Structure formats: C-alpha cells, structure tokens
Fold these 3 entries.
Entry 1:
Amino acid sequence: MSGDSDRIKSWEKLLEAGLKATEHNQDEDAKMYPLRKQFRPAAPNIAKASLKRDFEVGLVYYVGDDVEQDRALCGLERKPPTAHTFKEALERKRKILEESGIMKELGFDKKKGYFKY
Amino acid sequence: MGTKVSSGSTGTKYGYFLGCVMPAKMPWAEKATFLVSKHLGLDFDYMKETVCCVRPGVWKAINPDWWLTLTSQNLATAEKQNIVIVDSCNGCYISHWECLQELKEDPEKLEMVNRNLEKAGLKVKLSTDVKHFLQVLYEDVGIEKIKANVVKPLNIRIMRHIGCHARKHDERFPMYFDEIMRATGATIVDTPYDKTCCGLLLYFADPKTSIFERIGVKMQTAKELDIDAYALICSGCYDQFERAVKVYKDEKGIAFETPIVHFSELLALSFGYKPEDFGMMYCRPIPPTKLIQKLKEGK
C-alpha cells in the first residue's frame, strides 16, 4: 500500500516550523545572492523544531495544561519529575551545550530562539 | 486494585526513565508501569531530573560525539541518584546502553565526555547500569513470579509490535515480550509484519514511506485480522502509531479502530487492576472502549 497524495501535511508543518526557526533561509538568500555557495547546516531543517523544543525544555515535548490534566486523570502527578519540573536539569543541559561548543557549531542563538542557518 | 499474590525485592534500586513521549502522551502507560512494578515488589521509582535521552537517530547523525556528551548527562545523573536506569522506550534504551558501552570501551571518549560534563558539575564514573524494562521483568523478577501474579487471564487477541532497537540483543527481548504477554493470557497473532519497523526514524527523510509502507501496513493488517489490541512497549514507536492514526484520518479518511496499548497495561489488567486504576480510557487517539467492554464482560 502506498500514499495517494504527494505530501503529508504534518511533515510539511514540521519543515515549515524548522524554516521558521532559521534566520537565513538559503533558498531565499540564493535569489538575492545567486553566486553564494550553499552548504549543509549542522541541523537539518526538518529536525530544527524538535531540537529547539529540546533546548527550551530539555525534552522533545512540552507538558502544558492539557497534558497535566490528562496525567491527573490517570492518577499521576500533574508534572513529571523530568526537566519539566527540575529546571536545574535543563540548566545543566544548556551549560553542557554552551560550554562544549555544540550550540555554536549548530548556530543556535538561545536569546533569539533560532538557528542562524 | 489488583490482588497481590507474591512480592519480594531483587535488591536493586531501579530508576524509571520516562523519556519525552511517555509523560506527555502515554500517562496510562506510565501509571500502569508503576502499578505493575510495585505489585511485583520492585524497588522502583522515577529517575528524576532527566533530560531527553538524546534521540540517537537524530543526534548520532548530526555528530556522534555530541550524542555521547548529551546522553552522558543522564548517566551521570543516574550515578548521583545511585540507581540502575530502566528504559521501556527502545530509543532511550539504545541511547543509554550504547553510550555506556562506548564509554566503558573507549577511555578517550570518556575523558572527552567528562571534560564537557565537568562544566555542569557532573561526571560519569561508569558505576551505573542500563536495563530495558523487559529485562527487569523477565531476568530480575522472573516469568514464574509474573505468572503467579496473574489473577485475571486476558481472553484477547493481540498483535505485537516490539520495535527494532529491542532486537539489539538478537531475539532475547522479543522472546521476553512474547512470554510475558502470553503469561497474561493474551493470544499473540503472528503476522508477516511483526518485524517491520514502525518507521519513526524514517519519518524525517521519507514521510510517505515511513507512514504508508511501514506503520500503515501494520495497522491495516490489525484492522483486517480483527484483533482486540495492538500491544507495544516502546514510546518512540507509540509516537509513530499516534502520528499515523492522525495522518490516515486527516489525509485519507481512514479511521483505524484497533486500540494501541502498552504492554504494562495488559500486565496490570491481568494482575487484577481495573482500567480506571490507570486511566486506560483517557487521552488516546483510538479509545479502547470495545476492549474494555470485552474485558469487563469476561468474554
């Protein structure tokens, strides 16, 4: 069995979110500077949205009010004992990302919240 | 509540690593896992202060040293908490397990990782261990004790999805999965797609193949075979199942009706817990209404 449509909307949205989290869209830049050589950024566009969430909360998914409510319905604490609760774990992760040079290599500006390329 | 038949500790302090998907999308599985573990007398608690495992499919592809560094944060945290890490998500398991093995085998990598962790006040001393939840149940608790705790055998037909990374150690974990599921009384229906990948790691690169030629064929088969539930253990795979349910519904108008359940839920039910004890009916893309009804009627 294979898909009839050419696109998958949720995938397109993910790619769009990745491009939105990118300061310089190389395809757009190429229209203005056609001789500029394009390169492959460290983080692929399709993965950028989830990487951004990871840098913001320490995990790939947010836990908001709706999730907290679901957790309570299942008999759990509203917030899990992950970096969602323990902000110091997120701070340690950010420190590792910064000090080891990973953030710089990825070109992620944590203040602006997006990737340079 | 389940009827406790036997208990006893293995002497190990287990720290359950939730990962990213389970706390956000599978609270019923999280609750059921704790019910089962406590019921079996394990010294089982959350591993606290965790961050993403980090996804090996993404980070190893970007830079293997970065993956080692970031994954090591969880290893160092586990060592501080003096626990053995327990993963039920295969992706988290493979990330932690392979990272630990690599650091044990390569002193230069260990030094590199500790140089990076030091800045956050952490250090990996290689004093922790990483186990899959299947291992804890089968190797540490034992199948006989699990069978002894089954007070309400489940008269249901399930399809299995064990996941690729659970095949890291050949057929050991898949065998554990099958034996434990059979201990609950469930009948496992074999299909040609049992070993087919869910397609999660393929999704970024080739979404159509990932959805329609991996997870889709499996769910279509479940629909055709009229089984009661699709049983899995991996949260990463669950994420892909959930995504596929939505894609099929939104883009093809196809609604799947076979509920996707976590292995721990079936164990909990067989131990005598009720669906309400772990919120089985809440927040899932395919409500397990028929399955719950069937279990209540004891058909």
Entry 2:
Amino acid sequence: MLRRPVEPEGNAAVRLTIAGQSVTARRGESVATAALAAGLQATRNAPVSGEPRAPYCFMGVCFECLMTIDGQPNRQACLVPVQEGMTVEPQMQRPSLGVSGDG
Amino acid sequence: MADSVDIAVLGAGPAGMAAAVISANAGLKVAVLDDQAVPGGQIWRNVEAVAARGDLGLFGDDYAAGVDAVADFRATDVDYRPLSRVIGVEGADIGGDVLYVRDGKAGRLHAKRLIIALGAYERPMPFLGWTLPGVMTAGAAQIALKTGGLLPKRPFVLAGQGPLLLLLAAQFRAAGAAPDVLLRLDDPGRKWSAGKHGLRALAGFSDLLKGLKWQRALSDDVGKTIAGVTQLEASGGDRLAAVHWQTADGMAGEAKAATLLVHDGVIPNAQLTRAMRIPHRYDAAAAAWSPEASTDGQLADTDWAYVAGDNAGILGWAAATATGAKAGAAAAAALSAKAAVSNDVDRRLGRARAVRPLLDALYPPAQAFTAISDDTVICRCEAIKAGAVREALAMGAQGPNQIKAFLRTGMGPCQGRMCAYTVAALAAEAQGTALADTDLMRLRMPISPVTVAEMAHLNETDMDLPTA
Amino acid sequence: MIMDTTDVIVIGGGMVGGAIAYGLARAGADTLMLDEGDDAIRTARGNFGLVWVQTKGRGLQRYQDWSRESSEIWTEFSDDLQESTGVNTGYEKPGGLTLCTSEEDVRASEEIITAMKAQAGNGQYDAWMIDRQEIEALVPGVRFGPDVLAASFCPHDGHANPLKLLRAMHAGFQKAGGRYQPNASVVDIVRDGEGYAVLTAEGARYGAAKIVIACGHGIPELAAKVGLHCPTRPQRGQILVTERLQPMLPLPMGSIRQTDEGSIMLGVSHEEVGFDDRNTGDVSGAIAARAARILPDLANVNIVRSWGALRIMPPDGCPIYDESETWPGVFMTTNHSGVTLASVHAKHIPDWILRGETPVGFQDFSVKRFEGTPHAAPTG
C-alpha cells in the first residue's frame, strides 16, 4: 500500500516495534502510516465480518486503524504520533476483560 | 479551579488559526483544541516539518501558504492544546462547556464563546471492494506523503473526480510517483449544466486555470488516463489485487493494483454541530449538509457558538481564513473586544463563493451518476450492505434513524461518518423524496470514542447516579 | 381524507403498541398499527433490554405476578417470533443481579426482598441475597472491584436485544396480516357511527370498531379526549455503550449488561428533566465512574456511543391498563417495562381488547387506583 523511499535519519528517525518487527519511522508521522509503510497488510479484523481492514482516511474519520498501542487496545493509530520504543499490534480480535487486567 | 477562557476554538486549520489569531490579538483569552500534534489542519498538514526538510516544492503554492499562517499562529498568545479529542459541547448559563479528552482524561473547558472549525473530510464513495486493504482516499495518501514522506506502492490507480484529484496527481508526479492509471469519474450529463455558471466563475478564474494547468501536465506522465468512468470496483482476497471500471460508452477495463486512491470531493465535518442539535441544511449544489448559521458564522439556535471554514460549507482554504477571521471578529465583538479585520477578507470570500457553483456543477458526487449495488458494504463498521438497507426501507423503515434501529447502520465507532450520507441517499431513492427533505441520523456525545477511565473524570463533583 | 375500516387501530408502534398489535393480528383481528415518522421521540429505541422480575411491583403484587408470568412465557414468545419472522431476539434467562456497592445498598436490597416476600403473602418471591464469592462464581473470569459487596439474585431475570425484538414484532405483525401505517401522527379521536375514527396531523382519517392508545408520551393528551386520565411523566435514563468485546458477562447485572453483539451497556440514570433526552457530561462521568468501580478492567474499554431515552413513568412505576367508560372500546396501555411485558402483552391484551376477557386481578392495573392520591383524575 505505502512505501518509504527515503529512510529517516538522525533526529527525524523514531524506532518502534510493529507486529513484532523493529521499524524506523519518521518523526511527525502517525502509527498508522508507519504500520502500512512497514508492510502490515491489515491493521485490524472487522469485528462483525472478520475481514481484514486497513486505514482508509488517516485522519480519524474511518476508524479502520484501530490497533493496540502500548497495551491499550482499539486506539486510532492515525491520531497517535510515533514515539521511540512504542509497541504496536494489529487489532485482530475483539478485546477482552482479562482477570489480570490485560484488557 | 474551573478551566475557563473567553473563546474556545476547535480545530487548528486555516479557519481555526485565523479565528484564534484575530480574537487573541483583540486581547481575549483564547484556547485552541486540536486533535493533531501540530497546527495546520488537513490542508497544511505537517507544514512546519515539510518546510524544514525542504520538501515544500512538492506540494504547490496553496500548501506553502500554510508556512506563514502557522508561524503567525505560533507567534500569537493562544493556549494551544494539541492531541485533544472533542467529545461534546454543552450549553451553560453564559457560554458553554467543551467536553474533551487529553492526556488520558476527559475534562470540561468553559468558554464564553465557541468557534467550531473542524473542517471537512473526504466524501465516502462506496463501491464493491472499497473495504479491501489497499483502498484509501486521496487525502489519506497526501497525509502519508506530508507526514511520513511515503508514496503509494505500485501498481497505483487513482480514481475519482474534482480539482483535488488533479492536485494530488500533480503532487505524486512531482515526487516521482505518478499514478499508473488515472480513472476520471465523469457525470455523462454534466456538460449541459456547467455553462450557466461560466460568467460568475470568472471571479475565481485563477482556480480554474490551476486545474487546467495540472490537467495538461498530468497527461504527460500518467501511464493511462481513462475518462468518462461511471462504475468502479475493486477485487482481491485479503487485500486489493485489481481495479475494474466501466465507462459511459460501455468500455470496460481492469488493472492490477496494490494501491487504489479514490477521491469524490469533500464534505463538511458536521458530527459536532449535529450532536449539538443545531439545524442543518442540505445544499443540493454542493450535495452536502452544513450547519445553519448567519453570515458571521453564528450557529442557528445558539447565542454563543460559531462555525467557520469548510465546517460551515466547502469553499476551500482561502475562504476558510476569511470565515475564520469573521467568526473570530464576531465572537470578539460579542465580548466587547475590537478585532482588526483585514480589508481583503470579504474579497477572498467573494472570489471563493463565485467559483464554487461552477466547481459544484462540474464535479457532482459520484453517487449522482453511479449505482451502488446491493452487495456493496455501505456501513463499514457494522459490515452492512446496501441491499439490507433497501430491504429495511421496503419493510417500512421511514428514514436513517429507523434504519439504524433495524440494522445498526451508524452504531459503530465512526458514528455514521462513513455511512450517514449513503443511508440518507438510499432512503431518498426508495421513497422518491429529495435529499433536502431527509435528515441525517441523530448523533449524541461522545462524538469520538472515549475510554471508561477517561470518561470517569467528568464526574468531577463525584455525584451519585440519580437513582430510582 | 382516507377512509379505512378495521377491527382495531393500535396507536403507537413501539414496544407496547408493537406487542399488542402483533398479538391482535395473530388472534385474527384486522389490525391497523399507526406510527409516527423517523424523527419521533420513540422511547422504544432507547431500551436497556432487561426482561426483569426482581423488585417489580412493590405496592402492587399484581405487577410482580404479571412480570413473573412474562418471564415464564418469554421463551415461547421469542421462539414464535423467530419461527414466523426469522429474527432471533437473543433472549436468555441466566438470572439477574442487582449489585450492592455499599452497606446501604445491601440493606436496601435486603429490605426489598423482605417486603416483597411479605407482600406475596404465601412468601413466594424468588429473589435472594448472594455474597461476593457467589457473584464471582456466577461471573467467572471477571474482576470485580472491592466496592462490590453482595447482590440480590433472581433466577427469573434475563435479557434480550430490544431492537431485534421491535423488528421481530413488526415483521410478525405484518406477516400475520397486520397493516402498518407510518407517518401517521394521531391528533384526535372521534366517534364514528358504531365505532370510532382517528384523525392524523397528516390529514388522514382511519376508522375502527376499537382503538388502543399505546403511544407512550402521546397517551395523556389523546386519552384526555376520550375521558381517560393518564398520569405518566417522562423520566430520562442515560446509557453508555462500549465497543464490541469478547463475551465476558453471562448475566445481566441491573445496570451493566453485555449485548449479544458483544458491546457492554453501562447505565443508568433516573432524571426528572421533562422532555429533554440529551446526554450530559456529568451523568456520563458518573456512569463511567460507577462502571469502573464495579469492573475495574473496563477502564481502557472505549465508549463508542450513548443514548438517552425518556421512560414513560406512571406514578407508582406500575402499568396502567384501562378502558374508557364514556367511550367503550377505546383502551389505553402504558408502562415503562415494554420489553419485559412484551410476552404477556402479545398473549393477554388481545383477549381483553377483543372480548373483554382479562386475566385474574387485571382490574388492579386500572387508573382508578390513583383515586384519592395526588395523581387522581382531575375533577370537574
């Protein structure tokens, strides 16, 4: 879907983990764009139909970019700027209320 | 201690920034809530960083105009609150409260006057396969380019209509990534209606000229341009694999694709004004609903809230700076502060208004001339197809609210941002009524999702729930 | 002016009107259901979905019995609907809990149980207190906050999907030959020969031998035209709805329940604010705070939407069913538990309307019970 022609360097580079993969993103971009640029095919599975979905709008309107960011599920990844050390997972299942509070 | 300001501005795009600057310079205490991390809104997205990395040239003059606007805004004494999500607005004795979420908690900002400048978003254009990963709006690709420096993966198809489509194609071309296929959706019937707007549109001549220039430059580099497209379809398994089209002349075509960008114009972001129960009016020429407001932007049925920019009606960024300034000045005047309005505000507005009817006539939404098949998903959140909506209508559902109760269209996280227009159009089609006589589904706070923990912070008085 | 003749006109297509019309059509009566347009108040659309027995009818045993009977025939009612329409209401009866989050709550719940048992005479009131451990056993794998001390449990309590119920009743009604007329806002009822006619704001006229006024907040005004007094008032309830989650809550817990679609509904308020059905920040905050106290793991769950509905509240909280004395054949039916009572409404109310046959003690629900109280019909 998206490709990164130039790797960011120095202060413009932000390193985070997306779906277990170490990724370098550009400071100022969102987790959603970084995820697609890293090659993620789907940010989530639609809860009703189970089909894979990926962002459509990148501006907070379509809600397809719901991902688990630093342990918190169903966050709109397009409204979260990338930050050093973040951990991001696609939202492939509905969240649950764990006994341990994993959520 | 209550969080209280003279003027709260929602949105930091051209209109929001203009409103904030003019009212703050009039000596008022102004706060700006922005869901982005940096000012600029959508059109000037990330402009400071793009300028700093030397990429302004990719995006053209309209984008570059954002550099000064953002610099002015930054230099003004305004309480700028980025990464804030507005969830609702409540009236109070004087002015009202904006309920919003920031830093993990919901809070209440009291303001004597409110200026809503939440802009616009791309008109959803449902077609078979549009929910496949790999299908995005043209605006989404612009954001990816401006913020991440990212380009669409090839093979890349760009489909849609409107001046922004050509702008985007030009930007990708400048970045060395012109689309492989450009599909121009065209209303076969439109040639006849454009004529009568010609003379008035001369006032906005330069916008038209821009469009023509891009068109010519484009055809040099785009792999293949197909005009007169009236049907679009995307296919694939887990993600987009190919795009199929048909033209009014009956020609069919297809292309393999990894990315399909679509654009069908933009519509005002009216989620908040609708949730506030402000009356909205359908503008048939623009094919969009906007909140009813006075010429200064004061919203109908309120005495303390204003709307400005594309949120009030699509007129583009230059008009947005003008309507933002006017709303800011009006709000300041209401608080007995004198704002300095520059004397070209009305001229900017006049030009934008003059060219709009021609643009609207040249580029009606795709829905006006393409059919939505029963199998097309129209509510993405709840995976509901057009056929199900048509069935509910046949069974007696009267309109969008009943359709929502029957089928759950509009109950997902997007709260109808993606489906409300389509549901209204299907209802009007089934009942043979005009869209102007159809209301969109009702909205309530929270207009954006908020966690239970964030929402609990609104219980600041620790009140007990009123119980039976 | 459109002339139309019918056995029964049911004014109102909500939970109550829908159930009664469905029952009438199935009983073979030629029935016309009149409903307003897309933007009406529609209390039926803001329904929590409980099919609830515990605590019902304090002060009116008949209501407890009526609710209990509802729960006993609800499964059959739901199965019939599914068979004729294909729509599944999602009804389940796992029992229900009213959670106690303070010592006061515990005492209040205990007091209600004692009073209801005494009121039932022979002691037959099936609800009892359970402790924290028993709550955890009923809702395994879920963490309750320390404030949750106890609960009152009733095995007859359950829940259903109210929107599916409404859809099913409408579909079942039409399948059984009922006629549905939307965009019909009734403004007057007049005598018409041997029967009656209703006039709508849209300029239509419909005639019938009998009329059932079941239009929620519209009842008091219409009832007054036919010599009936309806002392109901609006009472707002706000609800927050979460995103879809894995199934976690097998039991409805009074003001927290998980729907068949996976979202959790969090409630609820009881506010006297007239006809204002908006949601407010302070009540939303209070609902969220309470929910987080009860189930701390809800903290990071997203609330995606909310609704506010205006309950149709009789003075004692119990249903009012009555027939006009001066306009025999014109009835009114009102209550604030339309989902719970849908089954008995469909089963018994048609017999009353068509043949004057009523269940035992039905007269207890008459509006006359308010005589001598501030809610009595105005005299003169």
Entry 3:
Amino acid sequence: MSGGRRQLIRLAGLALVLAAWEAAFRLGLLSPIIFGSPSLIVRAAASDGWTFLLAFRVTMFEIALAILIAWTLGIAFGVVAGSLPVVARISAPVLSALIAVPLVVLYPVLIAWLGLGAASKVVFGVVSGIFPIALNAMVGVQGIDRGYARMAAAMGANRRQIMFQVMAPLALPAIIAGLRLGTALIVIGVVLSEMLGSTDGIGFWISYHRALFNTGQVYLGILLALLVAGLANAALSLIERSYARRTVDQSVM
Amino acid sequence: MTARELIAVEGVDKTYGSGAQAMTALEGVSFSVREGEFITLVGPSGCGKSTLLQILAGLVPASTGRVAIDGAPVTGPSPDKVGVMFQDAWLLPWKTAIENVEFPLALRKVKAAERRQRALPLLELVGLASFAERYPDELSGGMRQRVAIARCLVQEPRVLLMDEPFAALDEQTRTRMGNELLQIWEKSGGTVVFVTHGLTEAIYLADTVFVMGTRPGRIIERIAVPLPRPRTIDMIGSEAFGRLRNRIWHLIAEVRT
Amino acid sequence: MAGWVVRLSPLLFLAALAAVWEATSRSGLADPRLLPPFSDVVRVLAGLLQDERFRGDLAVTLSEIAVAFAIVGPLGLGVGFFLGESLPAYRMFAPALHLLLSIPKSIFLPVFIFAFGIGFLQKVIFAVTLAFFIVVLSGIAAARSVPAGFTTAARSFGATRLQIYLRIYLPAMEPLIIEGLRMGLIFTVTGVLLAEMYGAPRGIGRVIFAWGEMLRMRELFAGVLLVVVATIIGNEILRSIEEFRRARRRGLR
C-alpha cells in the first residue's frame, strides 16, 4: 500500500472518529461535560482562541528555554561523565536512583522560590527532562570503542577536543534517543506545572476553564498541548534524519 | 655517512599494577633507530610490542627508562614529529576520506584551504584521490588503512609508528599494502617502526628486525636484513630469506619454552 | 574504584546533598526562610509523622497507590502477556498501543476530574491510566523473552498448559516482570501525587502543595523529603530484588 493511500485512509479514519464523536454528543449518548465534542472545541476556539494563542506563545517560550538549558547541560554532563570512567561509575547508579523520584513533588518548592511566573515553569521543565538526556549521553559515550579516543590522542587532540569532536558525535544516536525522551518530559513538565500553578500559558487556561466546566476550552487547550508535544517530536525526527549520514556503525572503522 | 640516531630507547620497563598483582609488560628494553631506517618489531602475542609502540608514541608512560625522539624526551603525543597507525583505522564515520585526512590539521585549527592543499596530495600518494569524497563505510578495509596512512603523514612527521596495521586484512591485500608502504616510505623518506607478529612481513619490510620475547617482554635479538631494495615478492622464496625466517622462528620458539 | 563506593553512591550523594543543604542554610548563604536547615526539616518531619492528621493524609495516599498498583500490575501484565504471545493480537493492537504511549496522558487530568470528581476513585483511575501502558510494554517484553525451546521441551514431557505457565513461563519472565512492576509503581506514585496536588480533599500531594502556597517552608520541605526518600528507597529495594533474581537466572540464557 503506497504512502499516499495510507495517509488517505488515516485521514478518513480521523474524519470518521470526529463524526462519531459529534454524533454521540448530539444524540446525548455521552456526557457532554466529560467528553465534549468537536463543535464545542470549535466554539471555544471562536470565543477564546486569541487568549489560547497568546498562551501558546508563552508556553512555547518556556519550553524553548527549558530545552535550551536541559539539552546543553544534559549533553555536556553526559559526555564529560561518560569520558571519565570514574565519574561515570559513580553517576550511573545515582542517576538511575533519582529517576524514581516523582519530580512533581518538587514543584511547590519552585513556586515558593520563583513565584508563579515563567521561571518556575522553565526550571521545572529542565529538571523533568535533564535526567534521561544526561544518562543517555553518558551511556552513549561509554559505549564507544576506546580506539577512537586513542587515535585522536595520537593525533595530538586535547581532552576537550576528544570529548566533543570525537566522542560526542560518535555517541549521537544514543544522545538523540535521550533528547527524544527528555524533550517529551520537558513539554509535559512545563504544561503540567502551568496547570498546577501559573499566571499564563496553555496549562493555566486549561485549569481555568476546568474550574468553570468549560469542556470545549479544556479540550482545546489539551489539543494545543498535544500539538506542542507533536511539534517537538517532529523537530527531533528532523534532527535525527539530518544526522543519519553521520550515524555510527561500530563495525565501521 | 651514517645517519644520525633518531629514536633512542634506554632501559625501559613497563609495569602495570603494584605489589602482588604487578604485571611486567616490558623489561630492560634498549635500542636505537637511525634516521631513515625501516625497522620491525616482531614477537609472539603478549610480548609487549604494542605497549612498546604506545610508549614511543607518547600514549603510555614508561615506568622507568628513557625514550627520546630527535633528542627530545617523549612526554606525550607529538603528532608533528610522530605519526601513529593502529590495526583499525578508526576513521570518523561522519567525515569523508579527505576530511578524515584533514582531521589532525583541523584539530590544530589550520584553515580549510590549507588543509585541503596538504591533504589531497597525500590521498593521491596512497592512490585514493578519486575517493576523496567517499565515506568510510563505502571503502574497503585496505582502502581505510590507506586513508589512515595518509592521515598519519599529513603533519609531515619524521617518524611513523605502526601497530600491526595490516593484521585485519586478507593476505593478498596485506602483501599489496606492504609493497605500497615501502614505496611511500622510499618516496617520502622518514623513519618507520612497524610492529607485527608475522615473520615474513617483518623480514620483508625491514632493514632491521628486532625480535621480542615474552614474559617479560624484552628484546632478544637484533637482526639486520641484508636483502637489497627495492624488495620483490620472489625474495620471499630465496634461501637467504628462508634462513632469516628460521633463525627468528627458533629464537621465538626457544623463549616460549 | 572500590566496589562499595559505587554501590552506595546514591546514598553518599544524598548524604553529601544533606550536608551541603545544612551548611548553606545555617551559614546564611541561602535565606533560611526560603531554605530551612536540614536538621530543622528532619525535626519537623519527625513531628509530622506523629501527627494524626498528617498520618491520615499519608494513609490516604498510600491506599490510593496500593489500590492503583494492585489493579494496574496484574491487568497490565495480563494484557502484556497476551499481546506478547499472540502475534496476530499484537499486530492488531500495536499501533493503538504506541499511539497511546506517545500521548502524554497526564494532560487529560482535567477530563478525569470531570468524569470522576476529585476523590479516591479519580486518583486511582488516573494513576492506573498513567501506569498501564508501561506495564503492558514490559509484559510484552517479558512474554517475548522466554525462549521457545522451553515450552517445546516441557510439552514433550507432557506438561499441561497451566503447568507450563506457572512453572516455566512465570519464573523465566520474573526479572522482566519485576522491572515492569517497578516502572509501573513509579508511574503510579507519580500519578497519585500529581492528581492529589491538582485537586483533592486529603492526601500527601495536596498537603504538600498547600504548604507551598502558604509558604510554610519547613513543613513543605519535610513533606518533599519524605516523598523523595521513600521513593528512592522503595525503588532501590525493588532494583536489588530485580538484580538478585536476574543474577540467579544467568544460567538460563
């Protein structure tokens, strides 16, 4: 089955689902408060669309900032830790232990320290996503054959050059896997923190309308949040593909 | 006129670990290599020949003793004086052949135009100029090693250290690469220290063969190879070659028992 | 590096963290009103653990976690085993599974509130939903990990289906089952705490969030400390069990 036909079938399926959803709403088959309907969402967009769009911008800004910080710190730490065997051996159990902590419990502390503005969201986003990024980068670098580092040393590369011009690119597939997971967690983290306590952003407006039982607006907000998550994932796929040429097949030497 | 001494090794020991678990890889290794010589280090596995090469390359420090290249003691890698090659080329998979050759220069922040200018002739030298834009996964094992040779030479070192560079190749390619290496060496001058565990290869390539023994690793004997240059394949079948080969074989066999 | 240092590195890390915490707070480097000293927090926590109301909240949270886990564990594993063993079933449901896995389900928290209110039931259902898919995935992996040769051998000496299941499949899958349950528990705890923080009459999550809003920092940190320590310890215990059982199985592969 060609890709075009598959796309068409998927769209048809989506249209079918939407139609059934709307029908269920009209016929009163499902509780309108819980399930809403496509028409409710459209109506919500008409009345509150502008607010949500502005909120979208705020959320994107927070996510972008969190991504910038988490990617940089996470990759840097992971690459450095992975290159220094002593650090790696200590960090691995620590990082794996910390993954068990429900990070959401740290959020009230961030609100108390940084207020309800963007700062607490960005920090929470960074904390949510940085562990898988660092862990994957570290494991990725550890898995590289030491021969590459030795070759670079023989050519006169210094420590920093070996880490970032040889090891990091070789570890790229692992790093990107970590970025994928970490970025998803960052997006969720930012939106959730907005839902829990904020002054603006998609999550804030979702919570606001939830309190008013405006199901249409709530679903609109959720849709936008899913859109953001989807965009982030797509961006990562793009990055992955543009670096496909430079992937490491460890058997190629 | 005898060439001057370029590589001087005196009383080198290398021990790993300490106390009861100490492992002596090398003991009392002393030899010298004159400028322009092609010498080979041959011995059974575990005789420390790779360790010795890494000490010469400045990648591993000697436990005791002195190592000097061109008068200066070896404290770390000096890629402008010493070029190193290993059994695996370790080409960076995301760089093309020419970019791999340029890599040492890029590390030194040499500008792109100059890098290309210095790297391209070397790829021509190893016969891979038409493969300059190919990636390592498009090249055969022998070709990758040739790129590695070019990369070795790009900083114009006086000394080439090679640790069993052709061991992973099939026999025909190995022989061909050996001949090509000799041609490159004769054309560009320079001094070569070549490690191998193949007796034929060791004799065929070298002016002098250093035979190493194991447990502990040390130099048992220094054997001059009186065969004329340029070397040809049929020399391998000659009586003189056979005698040399037997002699080395016995030396190694005796040590092992 | 000494083996014991590596094994205990999470503990050492936390101990070092506590030391730094105490020092920064007591020395005034950090504002002690925003970062109360570690010793004070521990004292407050000890007091809280004896407070009836706090223990009530703790009981609510623990029971929510227990009930949710009791549901999602067997349910998720059951579905996972089924999908793992039956290729046609897997092929049918895999796309839906992966789609649902990739959607951040916590964003739908408001919908859960619409549907189930903010009581005990909602927390349990939400946590089950969050954890379900991870457990299913682990179940699939576990079912697939059993080498086919085992069942053939067993059937050749007349074992019944049930016997095969209990005496071969289950023991063979044990490490992966434990790992799946461990991941499920992490998600369950996160789900319960998140839902409580968002809106609940009782529960540790709600209590911690309220303390944050009231800027009662010592109680806030006491609650956070309790959650962090409890989750890390719980996870490490489960991980040791998992590793222990895995090591005993080394002969099987």
